[in-house]
Design a protein that fits this description.
By secondary structure, the protein is an alpha/beta fold. It has one domain: Rossmann fold (3-Layer(aba) Sandwich), CATH 3.40.50. It has helices at about 10-15, 25-30, 40-60, 65-75, 80-90, 105-115, 120-130, and strands spanning about 5-10, 35-40, 95-100, 135, 150. It has a 5-stranded parallel β-sheet. Helix 1 crosses helix 2 (about 25-30), helix 1 packs across helix 3 (about 40-60) and helix 6 packs across helix 7 (about 120-130). The two termini are about 25 Å apart. The model has no long low-confidence stretch (mean pLDDT about 95).
Length: about 150
């Protein structure tokens, strides 16, 4: 029997990491997809680290905008608490981290044909390359990608 695999998109992992209105839905989806091997790639980890760091510093009143985050990271780096939370969450969920797939011409075609943001195109290509059909996401844009089954 083939192993069922599901890619965890940035929007989904952030709903797990941060307390949002979608957190309880994310937990329910994880229970529903309990028999699936969970997969993530560098691009989604990258985005999650950036957004979680932004929220961490914003909630502490250290920054007001994205430009301020660049300056703060240059001075202070990434908060250990954020890195540890992401790392422990991925380990607790037994998430496999895979390499991103990138082929320039396919990437350009993906951007244009499915009207995706650059990182979403990268994720869709990675899923196709690794034969992953299910993506756990709150991002509606993945509904335009015919080989992906976005959930919830």
């Amino acid at each position: 029997m083939a192993v069922k695999r599901a890619y965890i998109d940035t929007s989904f992992i952030l709903a797990i990491l941060l307390e949002t209105e979608k957190s309880s839905i994310a937990q329910q989806v994880l229970e529903t997809y309990g028999e699936f091997d969970l997969i993530i790639s560098g691009i989604a980890v990258n985005e999650a680290l950036y957004v979680a760091t932004y929220e961490y510093y914003r909630l502490k009143g250290r920054i007001k905008g994205r430009h301020g985050l660049r300056k703060l990271i240059a001075k202070q780096g990434y908060p250990k608490e954020v890195i540890d939370t992401i790392d422990s969450s991925l380990k607790d969920l037994n998430v496999e981290i895979i390499s991103d797939y990138f082929e320039y011409n396919e990437y350009l075609r993906m951007l244009q044909e499915y009207k995706l943001l650059p990182n979403d195109a990268q994720i869709a290509l990675t899923c196709r390359h690794h034969n992953i059909k299910t993506i756990l996401t709150f991002d509606e844009d993945f509904k335009r990608v015919p080989w992906l089954n976005p959930t919830p």
